[in-house]
Amino acid sequence: MTLKPFIKKITVIGNGGWGTTLAILLYKKGYEVTLWGADASYVAYLSEKRENVKFLKGISIPEGVGITAEISDKLMDAQFIVSATPTPYLRSVLAKLKDIFVYEIPIVSVTKGIENNTLMRPSEVIADVLGTHPISLLLGPSHAEEVARGLPTTIVASSKDGNLARIVQEVFTTDRFRVYTNPDTTGVELGAAMKNVIAIAAGICDGLKFGDNSKAALISRGLVEISRLGIAMGAQRSTFSGLTGLGDLITTCISPYGRNRWVGEQIGKGKKLQEILEKMEQIAEGVWTTKSVLALSHKFNVEMPITKEIYNVLFTGKNPLEAVSNLMMRAPKSEMEELI
Predict the structure, then answer these.
(1) Whether residues 175 and 195 fall in one domain
(2) What pLDDT does 132 receive?
(3) What is the value of pTM for the model shown?
(4) Can you give the pLDDT at residue 5?
């Protein structure tokens, strides 16, 4: 694939915080960018206000960025499509747009999650709905709030087509947004999704006012769980030491911007999940990913005690302190045991 010299127009599907941030980044690099959203009334508001007050408050959207809710062939008059729709809505959004997608147009997926019913990763959902398209991932520790403000960020492009990954790397790289490549699409996508489950646990630790020792233990053992399942599913062990493994995990477990960590913190303070979710504008992917990861752990016969306890806290009403006690009182083991 030798697409790079011909890339002029890029369409971003999904006007959440991350989709908006990438649209602005690409526009500033000189591309003609269209940002698409499903909610026509909010899209009209964005077009007038030029600020995504729900998802990216305080950041101006340049006048040159097109904003639309229309579904027409013009939307696909682009050389790249960025898919930035949250996992719970991804399939339904793609189904709405399926008839206008141009055959084999490259798609860059920036969605982190695992679909509940199918246990598919976002790239697999895209392929399932749209058929044959070149797909690249663009994932890693990248809070929209920081990228939009020009804070240095490093991320990973991953594709089964190495040339496409390099094209994505070149398209997105700026002096404040560095892109590496990694051919392990399974590991990159799984690490980026599963870290949100551990982030909920990290938030629970914060809500319960546990200390740094607890957070360090959680991140370390959480990475073991992520790696264990990822390797069982065909990923490379080394990927989980990289940006979409350890890097993404650290960011989402400690950052005040982290939605999943925030959900866990509220639970640790005694609030109920439904109450928390009703007050959120954005999706906390980790809540739904927890269901998928637990199902995958059963499917691949992989032990994931932290994930199991988080599932019980979220969906069976288990007391967070009881969950912590269960984890602490598990049978003693060697830290050096094999990951699988």
Answers:
(1) no
(2) 84
(3) 0.95
(4) 54
Which domain, by its residues, includes 308? 186-328
Active site residue 195: yes
Q: Which residue has the higher pLDDT, 327 or 30?
A: 30
Looking at the chain, list the stretches that DSSP marks H as alpha helix, in order from N- to C-terminal side. 17-28, 40-49, 87-97, 122-130, 144-148, 162-172, 185-207, 212-232, 248-254, 259-268, 273-278, 285-299, 305-315, 320-328
Q: Are residues 83 and 135 in the same domain?
A: yes
Query: For residue 330, which of 259, 225, 249 has the smallest C-alpha distance?
Result: 225
Nearest to 87 by CA among 287, 306, 322: 287
Catalytic pick among 195, 269, 291, 299 = 195
Amino acid letter, residue 321: L
Q: Do 132 and 233 belong together in one domain?
A: no
Same domain, 49 and 144: yes
| Nearest C-alpha neighbor of 261 from the set 21, 269, 86 | 269
Here the tokens at position 134 are 């070149």
Q: What is the CA radius of gyration of the chain?
A: 20
| Strands 32-36 and 66-68, bridge-based pairing | parallel
